[in-house]
Design goal:
alpha+beta; Jelly Rolls; nine-stranded mixed sheet; five-stranded mixed sheet; binds 2-acetamido-2-deoxy-beta-D-glucopyranose; Jmjc domain-containing protein 7-like
Length: 335
């Protein structure tokens, strides 16, 4: 790691500030920090602007080349596993899930957890979807290829009935691909879902996203909320990279938004993107009936099954102890 921050490190620094901001309630972190003294506020605000002050602070106080190196050397602050762990929903208590996974920002795969939902029996039945909710107006992304990102050139958001949307799957010669990926489940299908037992006493639900498509690929990106995604038809194959490896994903390059990477995570072009060789790449295969816990700010590219894929995300905002640990760390080191 060189002492001079590269462009991608700048990205990371700004990103990590966004990360701290969004993981914590901003007012809370400021309140806590301001009770420590003015110098830390200065240091964090400067860090948000350019990143250089933040790096300098790490050099001066910690002897680290960059904040990224700091995260790598403090695995207890930012632990990650070699592989996505399997969580057993029948034995793992909610308390232990929060302690061992959420607070440590470790993804985990719940095999068969979606099978306890009414949706699991019902949503593979096209006639059921059509009969109960076919007349609902939905909007879908419409584009010529199946590689989806909300900003794709030429992509449109189109309104149609859910029944018309289902019909698009039947046409083998379709010119356009459609992806229902913006909203709650349509109409009465909301009755087929449940609060996810393992988090319902801990997290407050912010949002649902119903993901219905045919052979879609989602470009690598991050989201600012905790996601528990359950698959009801087909599968979703996640290829993921931990947030502290953001310096290696060229995020925001090539005119993309900062939470998108131009890379192909599955078969990367290392000549064009050599830093990506340093990235830890993991995968999580979320089969029909499984749920995946995907912590906020993890990079993920998602390849869905070749046919119909139907999944649902529950999104949560969480006040992580991780943030508190970093604050505690600053308190020890800087004050
Ligand atoms: C599919 O749904 C339709 C309409 O609700 C129902 O009549 C039919 O029995 C269902 N089929 C199966 C295999 O459950
Ligand atoms: C849905 O139902 C409508 C009639 O209400 C029918 O025209 C359409 O073909 C059905 N679509 C599917 C995919 O079952
Ligand atoms: C799809 O295209 C093929 C080849 O052009 C053609 O033979 C077939 O009839 C088309 N199917 C439909 C449903 O239009
Ligand atoms: C899922 O992704 C992994 C990693 O890229 C790959 O090895 C595996 O073959 C994929 N599985 C399917 C069914 O596409």
């Amino acid at each position: 790691m060189s002492n001079k921050p590269s462009d991608s490190e700048f990205n990371f620094l700004e990103h990590s500030m966004e990360f701290l901001k969004s993981l914590s309630k901003l007012t809370l972190i400021y309140a806590v920090i301001s009770s420590f003294g003015i110098s830390v506020i200065y240091f964090i605000e400067e860090g948000m602007n350019s990143g250089t002050q933040l790096n300098n602070a790490f050099k001066a106080y910690e002897g680290y080349g960059s904040v990224n190196q700091f995260f790598i050397d403090y695995p207890q602050l930012y632990q990650f596993d070699d592989q996505v762990q399997i969580c057993d929903h029948t034995t793992l208590t909610p308390e232990n899930f929060v302690k061992q996974y959420v607070n440590k920002q470790r993804p985990c795969l719940f095999k068969g957890y979606a099978k306890i939902w009414p949706a699991f029996e019902k949503w593979t039945n096209q006639s059921y979807l059509n009969e109960t909710s076919g007349q609902e107006i939905i909007y879908a992304e419409k584009q010529k290829d199946n590689r989806f990102a909300y900003f794709t050139a030429g992509a449109k958001r189109v309104y149609m009935t859910y029944s018309q949307f289902l019909d698009t799957f039947q046409d083998p010669n379709r010119t356009y691909h459609y992806y229902f990926s913006f909203e709650d489940p349509p109409g009465p299908l909301k009755e087929d879902i449940i609060d996810i037992p393992i988090v319902q006493d801990y997290f407050e639900l912010e949002q649902l996203t119903f993901w219905h498509g045919f052979g879609t690929l989602t470009r690598p990106h991050t989201d600012a909320m905790e996601n528990i995604i359950c698959v009801f038809e087909g599968y979703k194959n996640f290829t993921i990279v931990p947030p502290h490896h953001t310096p290696f994903v060229y995020n925001g390059y090539e005119g993309l938004p900062r939470n998108y990477s131009p890379l192909e995570f599955v078969d990367p072009d290392y000549t064009k993107y050599p830093l990506f060789k340093n990235a830890k790449i993991m995968s999580a295969f979320v089969d029909q009936g499984d749920c995946l816990y995907m912590p906020s700010f993890w990079w993920h590219q998602v390849e869905s099954s070749k046919g119909v894929t139907l999944a649902l995300s529950h999104w949560y905002k969480v006040q992580h102890e991780f943030t508190q640990e970093i604050i505690a760390h600053y308190q020890d080191k800087f004050l």
